[in-house]
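Notebook entry, structure prediction.
Reason for the run: the old model in the group folder had no record of what sequence produced it. Starting over properly, with the input documented here first.
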Amino acid sequence: MRLNSNFLLPKLIGHRGVKDLKPENTFESILTAFDLGLECVEIDVKISKDCIPLLLHDDTLDRTTDGFGLVCDYTFDEINKLDAGYYFYKSKTEIKVPSLRSILDLVKKKQKYLNIELKPNKNYEELNVKKVLQEVQQTSNDKIYFSSFDLLSCVSLKDSAPHLLCGFLNDDFNKVNINETIDICKKYNFFSCGINLNCFNNSMINQFIENNIQVTVYSNNNITESQAQNLWSNNVTSIFVDDPSEYF
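New structure, fully documented this time:
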């Protein structure tokens, strides 16, 4: 089950679906990504109060729904009643926060790739991994890989399921420098490292490549095709894109 460590990820990965075109981490956003031609999407997953894995990036409901407060204080049914599209369209919608299971079914049906970024509720990192794995292991989809900024989540995943692929995300090389990051990836058998476009430099990428670690690049803003071409020419494996329209 899951990708061979020699596998190269798709060159383009939809960021939270296609978050500049549709409300992020929603069924609509992910379906649009696939309809536009993307082979892979990234989603953010954490658990509700009743331990159901769902798609939501933040610790709180405030930014992307009409609810408020910590995600972990509400059951999935309570969260599923919220409007997950109002913030994007500035008008009432019927768009909901989806369960991980519903997205796994969609991705399997479409025969696409999926990057699950583990976004744990604080102090519930191991429980989050456990519940996500329970959902994932019920599907036969072999095109899933994991990632997280949270080292404990990555380590917990590899301890629980060593055969699964996991990438470490580092957005601050002043806190964890390049050599320390490479050591972490090698120690725990993380196959990739995700970095912010602001951190990109050729020397860093070469160090990762020399240690057989694939590099993915994301940004706070949409990465343009010209930027992507430069990154790919410098041995970056995959780009997270918010709006892939110009690529197709």
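Summary: The two ends are 31 Å apart (CA to CA).
The old model has been moved to the deprecated folder.
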